[in-house]
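Whiteboard transcription, Tuesday session. T.W. wrote the C-alpha cells on the left side:
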C-alpha cells in the first residue's frame, strides 16, 4: 500500500460487514486511523481487532443522535481530531410504495437517510477546526434510477444525494468536501436480505417465484454490462479516493459505480 490516507483520522459506519468492513480495512492499510462503528458492536470490534493498533470501535446506532455524538467525541479523543467520515451504514428496504406501512417506511428512512445525516452532523465543527475534510455519504444507484421494489430505500438514497449537494454548497467555503457513492449490486448480507424479501430485481415479473436467493443474485449479473456483480473492494476503493486528498477538487457530486447498470 502507498499511504494514500497517511495520518488521516477517519470514521467508517457499518464497519462490521460488507462494504464498510472492506473500507475500514483499506483506509487503515493506506495509513489512516479508523473508528469502526456499527450497530453490531461485536462485529465492529472484530473489524478493529483485525486491523490492529490504528483502529478503535464503538457500538453505534446511526439513527440515534446521542450515539453519533459519542462516535465523534470518542474518535476525536482517541486520534486528536477528525479528517474524514464514510457514512456507509444502511439497511435493506424491500417493497413497493403500496406495500409499505409507516413503521417499515420510518425504519428505512431512519437509518438510510436520517442516519447518514446524523453520522456527519457532529463531525462538521471538528472538520472546520481542522481546516477542512471529506465526508463520503453512501447512496445507491437506486437513488439515481428506478429499480423495482425498493420504494423507501430509493427515497432515502435520493435524499442522501440531495443532502450531499446541499452540504457541499454550505460547507465548501470551510474546506469540507461532500460526495456520495452510488453502487450497483454488491452481494452482501443487505442484498441477500432484499432478495429474500423479493425486493430489487427479484421483484420483476421475470424472476421465478421459486428461485433461491443465490439464483436471484446470479440472475442480477445480466443487469450489469461489465458481466459481474460488484465487490466490496470495488466500492471501498472509490471511498478511499473520495476520503483522500487526491480528490481535492471533487465535491457535491454523486458518483455511480455500478458495472454499467445505469447506462444499460
Ligand atoms: P451489509 O449488510 O454487509 O452492511 C451493513 C452494515 O451496517 C452492517 O454491519 C450493519 O450492522 C450496519 N448497520 C445497520 N443498521 C445500522 C445502524 N442503525 N447503525 C449502525 N450500523 C448499522 O451491507 P452493505 O451492502 O455493505 O451496505 C453498506 C451500504 O452500502 C448501505 O448503506 C447500503 O445501502 C449501501 N449500498 C449497498 C449496495 C449493495 O449492492 N450491497 C448497493 C448500493 C448501496
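and on the right, the sequence the group agreed on:
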Amino acid at each position: 500500500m502507498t499511504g494514500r490516507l497517511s495520518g488521516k483520522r477517519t470514521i467508517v459506519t457499518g464497519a462490521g460487514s460488507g462494504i464498510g468492513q472492506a473500507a475500514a480495512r483499506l483506509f487503515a492499510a493506506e495509513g489512516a486511523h479508523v473508528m469502526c462503528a456499527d450497530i453490531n458492536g461485536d462485529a465492529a470490534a472484530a473489524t478493529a481487532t483485525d486491523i490492529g493498533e490504528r483502529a478503535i470501535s464503538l457500538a453505534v446506532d446511526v439513527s440515534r443522535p446521542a450515539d453519533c455524538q459519542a462516535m465523534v467525541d470518542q474518535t476525536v479523543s482517541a486520534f486528536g481530531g477528525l479528517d474524514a467520515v464514510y457514512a456507509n451504514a444502511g439497511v435493506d428496504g424491500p417493497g413497493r410504495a403500496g406495500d409499505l406501512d409507516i413503521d417499515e417506511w420510518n425504519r428505512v428512512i431512519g437509518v438510510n437517510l436520517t442516519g447518514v445525516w446524523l453520522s456527519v452532523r457532529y463531525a462538521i465543527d471538528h472538520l472546520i477546526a481542522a481546516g477542512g475534510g471529506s465526508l463520503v455519504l453512501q447512496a445507491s444507484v437506486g437513488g439515481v434510477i428506478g429499480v423495482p421494489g425498493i420504494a423507501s430505500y430509493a427515497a432515502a438514497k435520493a435524499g442522501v444525494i440531495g443532502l450531499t449537494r446541499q452540504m457541499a454548497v454550505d460547507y465548501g467555503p470551510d474546506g469540507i468536501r461532500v460526495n456520495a457513492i452510488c453502487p450497483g449490486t454488491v452481494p452482501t448480507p443487505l442484498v441477500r436480505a432484499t432478495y429474500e424479501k423479493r425486493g430489487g430485481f427479484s421483484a420483476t415479473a421475470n424472476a421465478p417465484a421459486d428461485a433461491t436467493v443465490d439464483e436471484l443474485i446470479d440472475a442480477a449479473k445480466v443487469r450489469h454490462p461489465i458481466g459481474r456483480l460488484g465487490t466490496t473492494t470495488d466500492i471501498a476503493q472509490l471511498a478511499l479516493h473520495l476520503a483522500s486528498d487526491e480528490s481535492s477538487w471533487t465535491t457535491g457530486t454523486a458518483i455511480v459505480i455500478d458495472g454499467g447498470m445505469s447506462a444499460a
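Someone added at the bottom: The chain has a mean pLDDT of 96.
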